[in-house]
Amino acid sequence: MRSTGFNSFVAVAALAAAVVLAGAARAGALEDGLAAYQAGRFDEAAAVWMPVAAAGDADAQTYIGFLYSEGQGVAEDDTEAVRWFLLAAAQGDLDAAMRLGLHYSRGEGVPEDDAEGVRWFRYAAERGKSEAQLSLAIHYDSGEGVTADPSQAYAWAKVAAAQGNWQAARFQMVLEDTAETAAILRGNELAQRYWENHVLPFLNPAN
């Protein structure tokens, strides 16, 4: 008769194998959906991603939210898009958080709420997403959803530009022409801090 220890080992090994297989199946479905999407077969992409999203995968949930937002492969439905983005963002998906920022700022699928939009932009910006950093900079410049602050606007634009975001680089140049020198100097100080706290840890997660 085999020992309890051996039986436990077999059970753990079987579970580990099941997890690996499930991960491979998930990855395969995501890739199949992306291939279909890139080929313009949006209905097929939706059909492939939907069960994976329903099973709780954050990437698939973001993809489904995008399809609903754009009306690709499914009927356009901003409310449904927001529902899927919220599910994905709750798991830390930064693309979903970015999309939520846009939906709240524009009032698409939810009542317009710039402050809530800024909250989602900040969530993604503070975790290294350059598009969200640019959006946060724009809101600090306009004062929509947050108190206007040219130093904050410049800092976030500079951090996003340093990651290669060309739109942020252009916005940074605009701010350099319009903001007071003191605001730019303060913005440079903030940008250094934000780079260290909100970019480097995500570029080098092992550090």
Write the SSE topology.
Elements: H1 4-38, H2 42-54, H3 58-70, H4 78-89, H5 94-106, H6 114-125, H7 130-142, H8 150-162, H9 166-178, H10 181-198, H11 200-203
Helix pairs in contact: 1-2, 2-3, 3-4, 4-5, 5-6, 6-7, 7-8, 8-9, 8-10
Short characterization:
By secondary structure, the chain is mainly α. It is about 75% helix and about 0% strand. The longest helix has about 35 residues, at about 5-40.
Can you describe this structure?
- The protein is mainly α.
- The chain has two domains: 97 residues, Tetratricopeptide repeat domain (Serine Threonine Protein Phosphatase 5, Tetratricopeptide repeat); 73 residues, no CATH class.
- The protein contains eleven helices and no strands.
- Helix 5 packs antiparallel against helix 6.
- The protein is elongated.
- The N terminus is likely disordered.
Profile the largest sheet: none
Q: How do the helices and strands follow one another from N- to C-terminus? A: HHHHHHHHHHH
Unreliable runs = 1-23
Helix content range: over 70%
Corresponding CATH architecture of the largest domain: Alpha Horseshoe
Contiguous helical run count: 11
CATH superfamily descriptor of the largest domain:
Tetratricopeptide repeat domain
Tally of discrete structural domains = 2
Any idea what the shape is?
elongated
- Multimeric status of the protein: single chain
Q: What structural class do helix, strand and pairing data support? A: mainly alpha
What gyration radius follows from the Cα positions, in whole Å?
21 Å
